[in-house]
Amino acid sequence: MRLLLPRILRLLFPGRKGPFVFERQPVILPAKPASLNLYIHLPFCRQLCPFCPYMKEVYDPAVSAAYQEALLQELESYRRLWGDVNIESVYFGGGTPSMTPEIIERTLSWIAGNFHLGHEVGVEVNPLDAHPAVISSFKNSGVSLVSLGVQSFHDRLLGLLGRDYDGKLARQASERLLQAGFATVDADLIFAIPTQSRQEVEADVETACELGVDQISTYPLLYFSYAPLRKQLHQARVTTPSWWLERQMLAAIVKKTQEAGYRRTSIWSFNRPETIRYTTVTKDAFVGIGAGATSKIGDYFKLNTFSVAEYIKAMAEGSPLALATKLDAGDKMAYWFFWRVYDLDIDTSTFQSIFGQDLPRRVRALLSLLKLLGMTQRRGNTIRLTEMGAYIFHLIEKEYTHAYLETMWQACLQEAWPQRVVL
Predict the structure, then answer these.
(1) SS (H, E, C) 76-106
(2) What is the DSSP letter of 423?
């Protein structure tokens, strides 16, 4: 089932129907694009949280300094190729990007000096780092959006997740970031944590609303097979929430945010009116910089090596490219459609302007069926998921995460230069 469901979605679009094959191959990048979105991966952390599936390692000053130089070398390789391209957005993810504000400051300075840098610049922030010196560095560097990794305001749940701060500090960090005047302050929460009650989920959301954050992101806890948390829970005989309780939690989140005046802007995010959404995953084309970073550009989806040491070495000698797959027209359509459904809104006129055609007949037939089932509603050219439709896609997104991301990340974490990964 984990692999079947995402593959069924691809059957709706023209093109190949077999699995995606990622392998070491040359990638032909397009001519100078009109604009770019950048994702920059900063993998360093104070400690490795047991639930986190991302590519990260414990901070070392010498490694961090070498990594900073490698990032600039990779950016320079794109500058040599494309010149002074427009950068619409830059997002720093990790790891714990806020641990190394000096990398963010220098990297943004380099980008501003070599490209045309826009105003959408986002950074993930650990509550431990939200103190005046770091906040001032971000403001001076041009950071406009911040996502605070709260996870929960409950000390008990933070302890279970292995976080090294308490709920009081998380609230204080939220207040400091809001007072600093960023365009968007996002509070990142996790629900469906083992032993968590629906009342605790509601209390977390209520706290974020009362603080007045611009965006609330609420992700279900996903159990990756290679992350230590699953084994720890099994040994402690701690059970995870049932699917029904998880559904109740998500429904409570939707209700609480709506009552507080937030609008649902994706399956798992909610924004105050007129605020800029903090989002890294829904860009249709982007270039990833750093170890473990991925890019979707031109006809390819490609990944850098997941090893920090090998990334630094590769940038000194050549290219950090580890794996790539070539996308056909149907793949590009399916990718666009998937993330627009994640955003809850499918604009059929935008699809036509990008791909030069209407949505494929099978897609239109599916959308008509979903409308009859009460999962979508249409206004003009926009098809929006209802609450029921959003819940179904919540399940699909979880399946996609395990079928594609977990499989790929595990292979790349096990081997710095894997030869082939089939999804």
Answers:
(1) HHHHHHHCCCEEEEEEEEECCHHHCHHHHHH
(2) -
SS3 call for 382: strand
Task: Answer whether 413's CB lies under 8 Å from 306's CB.
Answer: yes
DSSP classification of residue 286: B
What is the identity of the amino acid at 181? G
CA angle, 394 then 397 then 402, to 5°: 130
Architecture category of domain 21-271 in CATH: Alpha-Beta Horseshoe (3.80)
Helix orientation angle between 132-141 and 101-114, rounded to the nearest 10 degrees: 10
Q: Check pLDDT > 70 for residue 253.
A: yes
Architecture of domain 1-16+332-403: Orthogonal Bundle (1.10)
C-alpha of 256 from chain center: 23
> Residues 284-303: pLDDT tens digits?
889 999 999 999 999 999 99
H or E element that contains 252: helix 243-259
Q: Are strands 321-326 and 300-304 parallel, antiparallel or unpaired?
A: antiparallel
Q: Is 216 helix (H, G, I), strand (E, B) or coil?
A: strand
pLDDT, averaged across the chain: 93
What angle in degrees, to the nearest 10, is found between the helix axes of 387-400 and 243-259? Answer: 130
Q: Closest Cα partner for 249 from 186, 208, 187, 205? A: 205
pLDDT of residue 2: 41
- Tell me, what amino acid is at 7? R
